[in-house]
Amino acid sequence: MMLKVLIGIPVSEMHAYAIEELIDALRKIRYPNFDVLFVDNSSTDKFYNYLKEKYPNISVIRDHFFHEKIRKKMVECKNLLREKVLKEKYDYLLALDQDTIPPEDVLERLLSFKKDFIAGVYFGYPHKEGFNLTQKNIVKIDKRKATIFTPIVWISHPEYPKKVRYLTVEELKPERLIEVFLVGSGCILLSREFLEKIKFRYVEDNTNYDDYWLCEDARESGYKVYAYTGCICKHLILKREWHWDKIENK
């Protein structure tokens, strides 16, 4: 029997610029047995009503409550998606960020490995901490904006066992499955078994987002965290008119 997948995406007016390209990509996904659900966590009903009117064939629901803290509302949206997977007997959840554009074969590729936790790869701004960032990580530098992009995947540092570093661009080839320490939240495929045991969460007094805690909880529960370097997603960060560092109530 073909595996059934829910593609679940928290959405809001903050990333409205990405919605058209995202929906276009979702329509091109080749795998035949999946559903899509948006969970809108915008501050008002405006974006929700826009989606319902312009894209009537896309399922979208409103989060029950609006929270000022971004991390809190993201976790709540993802746990609503988790509940749907468990209640409606889906085999997997493909959790996407609104500004992450998956390739058309994303489900075929990720499902083929039969893993409980496997991520696609996308590029983004490195954290200020650096994580051993080198020239090998850099895929674009805009000198006017001092912009650097790197794969948002962290692996164990070979020289320092208790530290991690970014995966380099060079290490994306050849295409392969790799065990990693941490992945960003942009494109993660999670099995039903995994979701039965682990919920999305964040820690109030810690600046890490839910992707960090998801990876940590996976390891604590005996799961390995994988990324497949042959599944490269587009990340629409250049279209943002704001930056995470400037957002309050994160």
Could you describe the 3D structure shown?
The protein is an alpha/beta fold. The protein has one domain (5-246): Spore Coat Polysaccharide Biosynthesis Protein SpsA, Chain A. Helix content is 24%, strand content 26%. The chain has 6 helices and 17 strands. The chain has helices at residues 19-28, 46-54, 70-87, 106-111, 192-197, 210-220, and strands at 5-11, 34-40, 59-62, 92-96, 100-101, 117-121, 123-124, 141-142, 147-148, 150-151, 153-156, 164-166, 177-179, 182-183, 187-191, 226-232, 234-235. The strands form 5 sheets. It has an 8-stranded mixed sheet with strand order 3-2-1-4-15-6-16-13, sandwiched between helices. It has a 3-stranded antiparallel sheet with strand order 12-11-14. A two-stranded antiparallel sheet has the order 5-17. The longest helix is centred in the N-terminal third of the chain and has 18 residues, at 70-87. The chain is globular, with a radius of gyration of 17 Å. The mean pLDDT is 87.
